[in-house]
């Protein structure tokens, strides 16, 4: 890395001196001082990356072990977009001695780079960190504002994501709680197309241009964000989100069940409450998870009671209280009598179908509504609407935008992964597939310690003026080669 050291002493230090001088002239312009340092450190970082990669390639070229199996063909340049910026470096193309039809960039193989891979793992992680919250375009700009990462490139990375199954941390001792809460709802996302552009058509007079990603989250109840705060937050929430078709909903609920089983001592749990609006896909959970108690979502219940009493003008409040009292302490028959009485006050111009549908909704979820309003045995307020907005809608449907089916599915999973505090770099690394051995590369390709020592002696002759700074480099180089040897043994 002698060139990088020379660059730092001869170029970077002068840049820093100039920046310091300019800062002393105008101390109020602290932002320019910080920005200038950041830009120069990025330039130095790119220089260090380039030299380190080319140094590794030179080590492979100089290796006597490499010469037993591979011969040098020629050098090619490669461009990689990193989180520091774009680095251009030269690496050697080798031909197999035993089979001249086989070629390999041994450095690429050592780095775990695919032939057409344009972005490093750290660059992809930064893309995802930005794109999960804002847009594909800003995800590309986060890697390189110069435009080396287009929004299409970010989209392709996200569309190709595979997510690890059951990636939650399994505790050595399962947590013991009296009550568990499952909340579920869905978002409504607009599609540009399903599989190919132009494939959206009308069904029953309406264009089938929406898709409903599902959101489920499990938690242990509510607590105050701070001792004096009026705001509450969930205790140990875990989020699951998918676009499901066919058997996908059942598999999603099975995943929720595995999480609960891995994390909690089920025998210690008194009740598991399912807070929802009573949708059919949600109530499927009772087939997959035994012992659930359904609780009607408070938002939807209040919305229904408002619809049933909106025509009562000044008596709306009293009518709603009467409905709530009937749900809490009386029977469906009593509730129906109130409905019949209030229905008689509907204006003649009012369509009674909507009134009847709303009444049927409450009656079909009677026990779930009763559990909600009685607030006994650990029942807490639900927050599904707020969480659907926070986890899904905020990124996917609040602003006008169109998605594909694949993009919707991947983004809702990525949003859930992000909410679960998943690390984007770990997700990117999960994508890497096991690499096959380079043909004929069974032998190690690293230079011997003697070759390293001789190479370093020559480098010191050229860099005597930096010797005090660089005197530890021989031992450092030896250590690097041993580390590289170990890494190669894992790859090949």
* N/C terminus separation: 27 Å
Beta-strand residue fraction: 5-15%
Which descriptor suits the 3D outline? elongated
* Biggest sheet strand line-up: 12-9-4-13-14
The number of helical segments is: 21
Number of strands: 14
Structural class: alpha+beta
Number of separate domains? 3
- Helix content range: 40-55%
From the alpha carbons, calculate the radius of gyration and give it in angstroms: 32 Å
- Outline the biggest β-sheet: 5 strands, mixed
Mean pLDDT: 86
Characteristic terms for this protein:
alpha+beta, five-stranded mixed beta sheet, three-stranded antiparallel beta sheet, 51% helix, elongated
Short description:
The chain has helices at residues 2-25, 30-62, 64-67, 106-111, 121-131, 136-143, 151-159, 248-263, 280-283, 285-288, 298-309, 316-329, 332-343, 352-364, 366-374, 384-396, 405-419, 424-430, 449-462, 467-470, 473-491; strands at residues 70-81, 86-96, 103-104, 179-186, 189-190, 202-203, 206-207, 210-211, 214-219, 222-224, 232-234, 238-242, 271-276, 292-296. The protein is an alpha+beta fold and 492 residues long.
Report what the structure shows.
It is a single chain. It contains 21 helices and 14 strands. The chain starts with a helix and ends with a helix. It has 492 residues and is of the alpha+beta class. A hairpin with a 4-residue loop joins strand 1 and strand 2. Helix 5 crosses helix 18. The strands form 5 sheets. The chain has a 5-stranded mixed beta sheet, sandwiched between helices. A 3-stranded antiparallel beta sheet has the order 1-2-3. The chain has a two-stranded antiparallel sheet with strand order 5-8. The protein has 3 domains: 2-112 and 435-491, no CATH class; 122-159, no CATH class; 179-422, no CATH class. Mean pLDDT is 86; it is low at 433-453. Helix content is 51%, strand content 14%.
């Amino acid at each position: 890395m002698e060139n990088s050291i020379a660059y730092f002493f001869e170029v970077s230090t002068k840049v820093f001196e100039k920046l310091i001088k300019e800062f002393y002239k105008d101390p109020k312009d602290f932002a320019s001082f910080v920005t200038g340092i950041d830009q120069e450190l990025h330039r130095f970082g790119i220089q260090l990356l380039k030299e380190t990669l080319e140094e590794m390639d030179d080590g492979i070229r100089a290796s006597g072990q490499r010469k037993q199996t591979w011969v040098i063909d020629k050098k090619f340049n490669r461009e990689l977009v990193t989180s520091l910026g774009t680095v251009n470096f030269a690496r050697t193309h080798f031909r197999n001695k035993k089979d001249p039809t086989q070629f390999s960039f041994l450095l690429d193989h050592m780095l775990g780079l695919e032939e057409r891979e344009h972005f490093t793992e750290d660059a992809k992680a930064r893309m995802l960190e930005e794109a999960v919250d804002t847009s594909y375009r800003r995800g590309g700009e986060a890697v390189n504002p110069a435009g080396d990462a287009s929004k299409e490139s970010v989209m392709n990375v996200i569309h190709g994501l595979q997510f690890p199954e059951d990636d939650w941390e399994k505790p050595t001792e399962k947590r013991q709680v009296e009550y568990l809460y499952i909340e579920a709802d869905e978002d409504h996302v607009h599609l540009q197309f399903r599989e190919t552009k132009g494939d959206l058509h009308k069904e029953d007079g309406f264009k089938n241009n929406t898709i409903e990603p599902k959101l489920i989250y499990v938690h242990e109840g509510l607590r105050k964000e701070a001792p004096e705060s009026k705001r509450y937050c969930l205790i140990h929430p875990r989020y699951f989100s998918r676009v499901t078709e066919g058997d996908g909903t059942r598999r999603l609920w099975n995943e929720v069940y595995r999480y609960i089983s891995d994390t909690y001592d089920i025998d210690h749990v008194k009740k598991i409450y399912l807070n929802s609006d009573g949708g059919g896909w949600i109530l499927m959970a009772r087939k997959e998870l035994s012992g659930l108690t359904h609780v009607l979502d408070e938002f939807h219940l209040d919305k229904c009671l408002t619809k049933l009493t909106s025509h009562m003008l000044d008596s709306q409040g009293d009518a709603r209280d009467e409905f709530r009292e009937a749900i809490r302490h009386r029977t469906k028959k009593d509730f129906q009598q109130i409905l019949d009485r209030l229905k008689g006050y509907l204006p003649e111009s009012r369509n009674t179908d909507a009134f009847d549908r709303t009444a049927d909704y409450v009656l079909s979820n009677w026990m779930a509504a009763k559990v909600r309003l009685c607030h006994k045995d650990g029942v807490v307020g639900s927050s599904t609407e707020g969480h659907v907005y926070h986890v899904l809608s905020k990124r996917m449907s609040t602003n006008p935008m169109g998605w594909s089916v694949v993009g919707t599915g991947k983004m809702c999973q990525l949003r859930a992964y992000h909410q679960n505090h998943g690390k984007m770099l770990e997700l990117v690394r999960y994508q890497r597939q096991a690499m096959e051995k380079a043909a004929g590369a069974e032998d190690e390709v690293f230079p011997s310690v003697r070759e390293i020592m001789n190479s370093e002696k020559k480098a010191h002759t050229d860099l005597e003026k930096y010797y005090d700074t660089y005197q530890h480099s021989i031992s450092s180089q030896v250590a690097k080669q041993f580390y590289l040897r170990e890494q190669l043994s894992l790859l090949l």
